[in-house]
Every structure is written in structure tokens, then in C-alpha cells.
Amino acid sequence: MKPFLTISRPSLKNYSFFVTFVIVVGLCDTVNAQKLTINTGGSLVLNGTVSLVINNAAFQNNGTFAAGASTVVFAGSTDTTTAYVGGNTTSTFNNLSVIKSAYGVALKSKAIVANVLTVNGGNLYADSNLTLRSDVNLTARVAPVAATSQIIGKATVERYIPGKRAWRLMTAPVTSSNTIYNTWQDRGADNPGIGLLVTGPNPTGASGNGLDVSAQNSVSMKTWNYSTQALVNVLNTKVPISAGNTGSADNTGYFIFIRGDRNPANTCTCTFTNTTVSSIGALQTGTQTFPASSVSGKYTLIGNPYASPVNFANLSLNNLVNRFYVWDPALNLTGGYVMMDDPLFTGTWSQSVPSAQTTDIQSGQAFFVETKNNNQASVTFNESSKSSNRSNVGFRPYGVPSGILKVKLNLLNADNTTTLADGTFAEFNNIFSSGIDRDDAVKFGNTNENLSIVRNTISLAAERRPALHSNDTIYLKLTTTTQRAYQFVFDAANLQHPDMIGYLVDNYLGTVKTISLDGSTTVNFSVGTAAASAAPTRFKIVFKPAVVLPVTVTTVKAYHQNGDIAVEWTVENEINIVKYDVEKSTDGRVFRSVNTTMATADRNAANVYKWIDTKVTEGNNFYRIKWYDLNDTVKYSQLVHLVMERKMIPFTIYPNPVKGNNIHLEFANQPAGNYKFSLISSNGQLIRSTELFVGSGSTALELTTGKQLPAGQYTLQIAVDSSKPIETRSLILEQ
């Protein structure tokens, strides 16, 4: 029988183990030999979470190696002529550790790490044979690398991306990299589940700028210019995916739209696939310091330099706000920004919108940071940043818990399911300022719906203000909406107060909804064809006392004003009022609403409102005021009454009696318009009807009877429109 595995020692020449199919290694086996060889056709299976320690020896794989959940450890002090991974078969390790006291381990054949790569003693010589795998289940990471160790040579770093047409903030965590085209675009190949399309104007593909063709040739990849504070289109992918090659913070952050793999069908909006992208270059280890904008309030896009998650809370920030922005592709249709911060360094982080994002920045993920003051700024990553066990100590404790109101915006689908689109929040504590400062987080604009809080014309992802008090108002700003159904979810904590009630005011519908100050409230609404339904300032949240003085409409009056009627009312104790309707009647019994005026006062005071009725009714005009309070209660004022005298249309017939078939009219000081003329006999029969345009001012007009009429008395009726009474004149017709 052919041996499948050989362990060779200097003192034992070609001593072999013979097993029919496999060798199963136990919990912790150590191989002390120059070489552990899996022969062609043979298999080595490591069952469970076992460790195989290869001490001063090589790992030669010419057969099948099944790592399971094991760890393969290279130990000892010999150099790479003895300690290496070789063979003509790719070896896939679950965990691979190098803990040599001297020298190192060389990868002389292809090696894949599926879980954790540890280099805690000696060097690892990757020699372009190392791949850190990423798939739907797991993404490999590099554990903290010892200060005395290095990973030398190039490696391939994978990043699995689940199927969804969405933007991402990404980076390639390598230095001395290959081009965008040769890495993320997979050299232009079309292999299922691999690579991505990068599109833009004037694409010339492999022979030119590397861009892929799409129906619109729209830009799908951008970088960030922190001098201009703007995203910059990537119009050539035949450039290194990481800008530098010094080994110090060389990787570049990108904003990229991912449709799936490189299948051209994915340029259609109806398709998408899972994909895995690969970065090729040297792994960045040790201290990595990224410069940031030196201008206060400006932003810098930083890419995680390590092929490993890092905890943002463990980064060293120089002149930067303790805050970062990431893009969550799960939000809305194509993703959205999530702001996370801990401005008071309490160790408790806030999110602008509910998200799976934590303070852990993943391998291949990029994020924005904000500069505090006008001075040099930077963010430093250390190998210890890869640990998530450390926490910040609070330098300025709250003293009392903050109150918080989180607002989520959902897309409300036809089947009543929801899709999270965006969110914002307000935090209340007297430690915060009423003005805008570094505790407040500026809103980053999404490609789809945007929800923010506006203060002093600035849109905020997070607003922090002093403790809640009566008459506080949160002005919501909702933009980039479409004509569809939406849903607000308000989540409040530590805001409850026996004398306070929160309300959502809808300025478009003129409605008010009560919001719980200690729990969750859901409010559905829609945006339609009316421009006001999509107004950015449609919604606001107001906080009012639970008990207020009764509203008093002290006076209501109506009076003549330049031919119109002015309706005026005075209100006291208006604090609980939402809006007023002016209602009108011509008989004092049946009323209709003719005007809506929103309440504008923010405190108990006497407030005067006025509305002009330009469509007055000749005769009786009755008015009353109807008002709505925050509890949806409706009340009415007393009636006021004003009589408008009838104004006759000043026209004359001349001569009268009329001779012949032509009737001559003269109008005096009339508005221009179409007038309808009807000639009626003495027995009520309509003889002739016509409509003529009459110019403004004084006008002479001639009507014809159309035929010879019998002599006698007739009536001429003149009508302007349906809202005016019909004017009549008698005339005598002579032959």
C-alpha cells in the first residue's frame, strides 16, 4: 500500500505511517521532525478544535488537508529552509499561528487562512502565496502582530459582499498594491461570484481606462478630497487600489456602488448577486497614522488599514471628534449613513439610525472622521486597536441620565412590511449647550430619503441640547422623498414628565399626534402629488405642558376693507392650540371652511390673527372661528355678521325704445371679462342668448336681435359669472 503521510526525522530515514484512509490528530499533537508530508492521494483530517504544533519542521501537502476548526502552529527556532508550507496542493488552514522564537515560516505554496492568522513570534514570508478568505460565513482576520514580527511579501485579502444593489464605503487594507482593475475588477474576467463592475463615462475597458460599460455609464466609484470636502469620480481604474507603497497608512477609502459580481446583467436594476472582491498587496501591520483635514468641522475618509476589525474606541484621535460616520448598505434602497459618537467619553455610543454597525470597523471598511479645531489632525491605528476588550474611561460623567428621542423613518410597503430608510435623534441633558457645537453631529446626505433635525438652518444627524422643558420644539427635515407611504417610529427614553406631553405636528394635513415620552410611537403618513406633502419642513415635534389654561378667543369681528371683508380674532392662552379655521355662511346655519391658519405663538400671550375674504357675498355674510387643540378637541367662537350691499352693474340701453334689430349698450367702469346676454320676451320665452367679451373701463357695445321681432316689451338679462346675481333691464322694441 502507498503511504499517504510521512513524518521524517534526521535519525529515522523514511519512517512511514500506513493508514488505509486518514490520520486523525487528537487534541494537541506535536510534530518534531524536519517535514510533515501528506502524500498524493492521502488525507490528513483534524477533527474539532484541536491544535497541531509543527516544531522546527515543514508542512508538505501533496494530498488532502481538512483543517476543521483546528489551529496549526509553527513553533521552534529554525529558519525558512526547514519551517515552511509547501507541496503541490493548496492548504486551507482554519487558524494558522507562527510563534517561533527566531527566524520564521515561508509559504512556498498556496495557503489559505479561513479564520485567524497569528504572527506572534518570528516572521511570516507570504511570498504572494497567502490568501485571507472571506465568505458568507466567515472573514479571516490578522490578530495583533508582535512588535518583533513581520508579515513579509504580498498577500490576497478577500471581502465577501452579500447581494444588494447599494453603495458601500470600502478600502483595500494593503500597501504596494495592484491596480483597481487587476484586483476588485478581477482583471476584467467574468467569473461567477467574483469581482465587481466599475462604471463611468467613456469606458474603454482593458485596453484603456479600465472602466466597465453600463447602460447609462454612470460613475460607480468615488474617492474623497478633504481639501474640497467632496467626492471625486474615479475615471481610471488602471491605478493602484491603495495610493501608497511605504507601508504606512497607504490604503485609500472609496465610496462605491456594488451591483454584485462582474456579470454584465447586473448593470440592470432588476438583478444583483453575491460577490467576493480581492485586494492584492502587502499587509499593513504595526502603527498606522492617517493625516486628517486641518480645518475645523471638515471631514476625512479613512480606510481601516488592517486585514482585521478594529475598535474605533481604541483608536488614537488627535484633534478629532470622538465620532465616525459609516455607510450601512442595509438601510433604505441603496444604503444610508449611520453616525456613531460618544462625545462625553462615557463608553456608551449613540447611533443616528438603528443599525447593525457597532464601534467595530470591519476589514475592508472605510469611515469618515471630523476635525475639531484648526490645527493638524490625525487618527492612529495600533495593533492593540484590534482588541475590542478595552473601554474608555468617562472624563465628564453625566451626573443624571440623558433623555433621548430617536426618530426612525421607514418605507411603508404595500404589504405593510417596512424597510428602514433613515433616522436621527435628539439627546437632552443640561451638560449640553443650546447652540451648535461639537456635541452635535452634522447630517451626511444619503442618495435616497434623508431625515434630520434642523437647528439654526443646519441639518443634524444628532442634536444635543439642554434638558427638556415646556415649549421645546424639534424641527424635523425630510427630503428626497418620493410619492409613496412612509412611517415614523419615535422611541423615547427618560423623557417622561407628569406635566409634559409630546406632539407630532403635520403642517400639511394640519393634524397633531401624541408621542409617548417613555416608549415607542408609530405614525404613518404619505407623500403625494401635492408639493406641500413633500415639503422638507412638514413635520415638527413640540413639547407642551399637560395642563394649560383654557383657550379664550376674546374677540371676533368682521369689517369692510377696500370692498372686501376682513375677519379678525384675538386669542389668549394659546399655548395648546394647533390651528384655526375661518368658517363662513350666508344664512347663519350652514357653514363651510374658507381658510386655515396655523397657530404661531410659543407662549401664553394675546395673539391677533386676520384673514381677508375677497369673495364676499352680496347680502348676509356670517363668520365664526373654529380651533383645534393638541388633544384633538374642537371649539367654536361666537358668530359675527356683516351685510354687503348689492352693487349693480352700471350699464344703460340707448336709445330706449329701440328701433330696428340692434340694441346699443354702454358700460361704465366695469372689469374686463366675458358677459352673457339673454333677450327674453314678455311671456318668458328666450329669444336669443350670446356671450361677448367686455373690456375694462367704459365700453360701448351693440347686440343684434338676429331677426325681425314683433314690437313690444322685452327683458335683457346680463350675467358675469355664477357667483354674481343676474342684472336685468327692460326695453321697448319699435318697428
Protein described:
The protein has 735 residues and is mostly beta strands. 0% of the residues lie in helices and 49% in strands. It has a 16-stranded mixed β-sheet that branches. Residues 1-27 and 388-400 have low confidence and may be disordered.
List keywords for this structure.
about 725 residues, mainly beta, Immunoglobulin-like, 16-stranded mixed β-sheet, eleven-stranded mixed β-sheet, 60 strands, about 50% strand, elongated, disordered N terminus
Concise account of the structure shown:
The chain is 0% helix and 49% strand.
Indicate the overall shape. Answer: elongated
Low-confidence stretches: 1-27, 388-400
* Helix coverage percent: under 10%
Please tally the helical runs, counting DSSP H or I stretches of 4 or more residues: 0
CA-based gyration radius: 40 Å
The number of strands is 60
Mean pLDDT: 86
Please state roughly what percent of the residues sit in beta strands, choosing from under 5%, 5-15%, 15-25%, 25-35%, 35-45% or over 45%: over 45%
Topology overview:
Layout: E1 5-8, E2 16-17, E3 22-25, E4 28-32, E5 35-38, E6 43-46, E7 51-55, E8 58-61, E9 64-66, E10 71-75, E11 84-86, E12 91-107, E13 111-125, E14 130-132, E15 141-142, E16 151-152, E17 154-161, E18 166-171, E19 174-175, E20 221-225, E21 230-233, E22 253-258, E23 275-283, E24 288-292, E25 299-303, E26 310-311, E27 316-318, E28 323-328, E29 336-341, E30 350-351, E31 360-361, E32 366-370, E33 377-381, E34 403-412, E35 418-428, E36 441-442, E37 450-455, E38 458-465, E39 473-479, E40 485-493, E41 500-506, E42 511-515, E43 519-526, E44 539-545, E45 552-561, E46 564-572, E47 577-585, E48 592-598, E49 607-613, E50 619-629, E51 634-636, E52 640-644, E53 651-653, E54 658-659, E55 662-670, E56 673-680, E57 686-694, E58 697-704, E59 712-719, E60 727-734
Parallel strand pairs: 3-6, 4-7, 5-8, 6-9, 7-10, 8-11, 10-12, 11-12, 12-13, 13-14, 13-15, 13-16, 14-17, 35-38, 54-60
Antiparallel strand pairs: 1-2, 1-5, 17-23, 18-22, 19-23, 20-21, 20-22, 24-33, 25-32, 26-31, 27-33, 28-29, 29-30, 34-35, 34-40, 36-38, 37-38, 37-39, 39-44, 40-43, 41-42, 41-44, 45-46, 46-49, 47-48, 47-50, 50-51, 50-52, 53-55, 55-58, 56-57, 56-59, 59-60
